[in-house]
Amino acid sequence: MAFSPAQIQTNRKANHATEGRRRMTSKSMDLMSHSSAFLLPTFPPNQTPSPTYVLLLLNQSLPRFAPLLWNHAQLRMCADGGANRVYDDMPLLLPHDNAVDVRKRYKPDVIKGDMDSIRKDVLEFYASMGTQIINESEDQDTTDLHKCIAYICDSAPNLDKSNLCILVAGALGGRFDHEIGNINMLCRFSNIRIILISDDCLIHLLPRTHCHEIHIQSSAEGPHCGLVPIGIPSGSTTTEGLQWDLAETEMRFGGLISTSNLVKGEKITVQSDADLLWTISIKKM
């Protein structure tokens, strides 16, 4: 197949532009470090600075390790019907403890949303315990998750937000449109560390503005993992530390995406020209 001189020149310019972006990216990108240490009973001694964890609970079954996440969090918040889950599920996760004592001990700090899902008995119980109730039933343009993240970022008092990490439990499973809406919040609030968690896996965003170093907590997560471009296709993604590493690989829906991959060691590095979703399985502990 022959190309005209004009086509050859156009291709050369495109290749030079691509190479220029790659060189500029590798030189100018800051490193962003990620760790799932919140899945461990105690934080590793080398984890500094320690993140400020906020636990946000949605209206899906709580993961079996919800009490662990609760203990790590400095703020515990329910999005509307998520309060039903705390009330109903926490005693089931701690079957050897008295149910009433569990409900008093695991009292959310804040319940926020349009209040169309929370049961009346649950609302009255937590209100009597001093939980802050924020009714935003007049706002039907944003999801309860959106409302809660905005509150955490803008209004939550006495919270160090310099190294904030929001753990969203119950974000996966159930209706697919809800899942997609929750994933969309990762993009909507791309400047905030938000991790969507289920009983089986976690998902968070790897913004294209940074190089990424993911520290694997092998006792709690892996080995199955995936990288999925979101927003736009990736023209070039490079990884180290995976069973099937990517080398300036193009990824897009309708083409290649990295699913059913495996982590090989304790550290994964990722660099891409597009935002990516990182997902990794959570072990049955």
Q: Percent of residues in helical segments?
A: 25-40%
Count of beta strands: 15
Order of helices and strands: HEEHEHHEHEHEHEEEEEEEEE
- Mean of all residue-level pLDDT scores: 89
Give the number of helices.
Answer: 7
Q: Strand order of the main beta sheet, please? A: 5-4-3-2-6-7-8-15-10-13
Q: In whole angstroms, how far apart are the ends?
A: 58 Å
Radius of gyration: 21 Å
Describe it.
Helices cover 29% and strands 30% of the residues. It has 7 helices and 15 strands. The chain has helices spanning 5-28, 66-72, 82-93, 99-105, 120-128, 144-154, 176-188, and strands at 30-35, 52-57, 75-79, 110-113, 132-135, 164-169, 193-197, 201-206, 210-215, 221-229, 234-240, 249-251, 258-262, 267-272, 276-282. Strands 5-4-3-2-6-7-8-15-10-13 form a 10-stranded mixed beta sheet, sandwiched between helices. α3 (82-93) crosses α4. The longest helix has 24 residues, at 5-28. The protein is globular and about 55 Å long.
